[in-house]
Specification:
- It is a single chain.
- The protein is an alpha+beta fold.
- The chain has a single domain, classed as Vaccinia Virus protein VP39 (Rossmann fold), CATH 3.40.50.150.
- The chain contains 2 helices and 4 strands; from the N terminus they run βαβαββ.
- It has a 4-stranded mixed sheet with strand order 1-2-4-3, with helices on one face.
- Strand 1, helix 1 and strand 2 form a beta-alpha-beta unit.
- The longest helix is centred in the last third of the chain and has 15 residues.
Length: about 90
């Protein structure tokens, strides 16, 4: 039996954020919230040069076009994105 969650907090290996997100969306209930921490990565995503910054930049861009969710990025410290599944 699969569990369905109302809230998921994502703060893991930055290189795999998209993988974790893709795994979490099916188990997040409609209207549920996913919080992705450190999405600005000390502003390194603005000019991503290292692999983790590039992965986070790609994750942020993918969220923008994902029609399964709505989201808001809070530019506090390393950045936090609050995602709501439609």
């Amino acid at each position: 039996m699969n569990k369905i969650y109302g809230l998921i907090y994502l703060n893991a290996d930055k290189f795999y954020y998209q993988h974790y997100f893709d795994h979490c969306i099916p188990i997040l209930k409609s209207g549920g919230i996913l919080i992705a921490d450190n999405v600005l990565w000390s502003a390194q995503v603005l000019a991503p040069e290292d692999p983790k910054s590039q992965a986070l930049d790609a994750f942020n861009k993918q969220l923008k076009i994902d029609n399964r969710v709505s989201h808001v990025l809070l530019p506090l410290r390393d950045g936090c994105t609050i995602v709501r599944k439609k």
